[in-house]
Amino acid sequence: MITDGFGSPRPGGIRHGGVDIMYLRAPTDTFKPRTANGSWLSVMPDNTAALAASDGVVWSAMKTPRGFAVVIDHGPTKAATFYTHLEQLFVKETANAKAGERVRAGQEIGIIGADPLDQGRLKHMHFELWLGGPSDAVDPSYVMPGWEVVNDPRRATLARNVSLTYRPIGARGEPYPNWIRELDGKSGVYVIREPASDGTVETVYVGESHTNRLYDTLTRHFQTWRRWKGFWKGQYGEGHDPGLTYDRGRVEVAVRVTSPSVAIDEEARLITRLRPRDNLLGQPAEDDVPF
Questions:
Q1: Does residue 288 lie in a domain region?
Q2: What is the CATH number of the domain that holds 93?
Q3: Residue 192 confidence class, pLDDT cut points 50, 70, 90
Q4: For site-directed labelling of 203, which of 48, 114, 169, 196 has its Cα 20 to 30 A away?
Q5: Are 176 and 107 in the same domain?
Q6: Is the entire prediction scored with pTM above 0.85?
Q7: Which H/E stretch holds residue 127?
């Protein structure tokens, strides 16, 4: 639902340049009013993804005083869309479309957060529709009712491969991209995949952190020194922790930030569905044992 419409007044004679979006409160919602996740009429759960409204190229993606913000150019039309108050980006930081990153309609571009300048810190997404640029903003509420509504893939079935956005993380020695560094202090699950010898892409490892150490847990797989300090010497280490490391330049990574309470269950679902090559535990039993 739109909780604050286009053109609503602001202090200093300013008008709202877009619309604020949240979910209509349902009787079963447990989010209390006047908290970060809820008002009297609407709610916004943690870890809710912002989705691209249509196919396009990421014109800009960067941190601002009002949270992360993304602009998508939907050329060859004049339309562009603007999303802000994001607490995490799933696209590359860029300006003037230098990254050349394309997104598809419905693709997750970030996690919805709150406006840091808002005293109430109420989570919501501010959305604008431009027909040329920021000065050409129009009321999106006239076209939004006709848009397709999609289910959140993480709530429907996190293990479906199509619900995971895989991205490169750069070569050895390069700084990790911002979306990796933003995992510091968070919990969730991750999937690592790499090209197989036959030219296909193979899922090699699924992991999780339920102790708010997602950044550390993921990046240990790209620390080559681990091979020489007892973690990995051609065999699995003590405690069935393989300590496997991978070539950063060859792999792609998909990450889901979750609450600590569901991270282990989500990891188990992903292992069952994706059958990663290098996980020792959690693999589904074969129907027919060949011996």
A1: no
A2: 2.70.70.10
A3: very high
A4: 48
A5: no
A6: no
A7: strand 125-131
- Of the residues 134, 150, 166, the one at which a domain ends: 150
Identify the residue whose tokens are 């044992």: 289
Q: Are residues 236 and 190 both part of a single domain?
A: yes
Joined tokens for residue 76: 């060859």
Tens-digit pLDDT profile for residues 14-45: 999 999 999 999 888 889 999 999 999 999 99
Do the Cβ atoms of 168 and 175 come closer than 8 Å? no
- d(CA 108, CA 290) in angstroms, rounded, equals 41
Whether pLDDT at 290 is above 60: no
* 112 & 8 share domain: yes
Domain range for 71: 2-150
Residues 125 and 256 in one domain: no
Helix (H) or strand (E) holding 110: strand 108-112
> What are φ and ψ of residue 281, in 5° steps?
-105, 150
Strand 2-4, strand 137-138: pairing = unpaired
Listed residues 102, 119, 150: the one ending a domain: 150
Q: Please check whether residues 175 and 233 belong to one and the same domain.
A: yes
Which phi and psi angles does 85 have, rounded to 5°? 70, 30
Question: If we measure between CA atoms, which residue out of 127, 160, 131, 157 comes closest to residue 144?
Answer: 127
Q: Which residues of 246-269 are buried (b: 16+ CB within 10 A; e: fewer)?
A: bebeebbbbbbbbeeebbbebbbb
Count up the domains in the chain and report the number. 2
Give the confidence band of 223 by pLDDT, cuts at 50, 70, 90. confident
Burial 183-200 (b: 16+ CB within 10 A, else e): beebbbbbbbbbeeeeee
